[in-house]
Amino acid sequence: MKHKTILVQLKFKLPGFSRKRTPESSRDQYHARDLSYLESNAVYMSKVFEKVKNYLEEKRPYLYGTVSLGELSQKIYANRTHVSKAVNKYAGMNYSAFINSYRVKHAAELISKDPRMKMEEVAKLSGFNTLPSFNAAFKSVMNERPSEYQAKVHRK
Hints:
Layout: H1 2-13, H2 24-59, H3 69-75, H4 80-91, H5 95-113, H6 119-125, H7 131-142, H8 146-155
């Protein structure tokens, strides 16, 4: 019992555990350190996002089925949570929507090259497993259904 009492007493005598308010200069020092950390963290996150974009654009893994957040993180040697947060921050969407935006971009290119291509084929070649998921993602990214986009391209 004596040991616990001693530990508690020591804890409150250590610097940083005081119940007194810190002076303004100390607060400014901590604030500057926090800002420095936030700035370096922002630089790191932007680099992670660049690595994600570069990998997706060079390797195009989204065309071959599912690309999990964990798999992508391993490929670019980054923490899974950091990749997710970087995509959320810099792309303005979650990881799944970000991958689907690349797939939809590819689908739009396929439709532009061959406006007579069947939507099922476009969906499969773009990495979508089902036609409904393709239609929903396409509408979300392009603000029109794939068939509307196809008709517009076919008229040109």
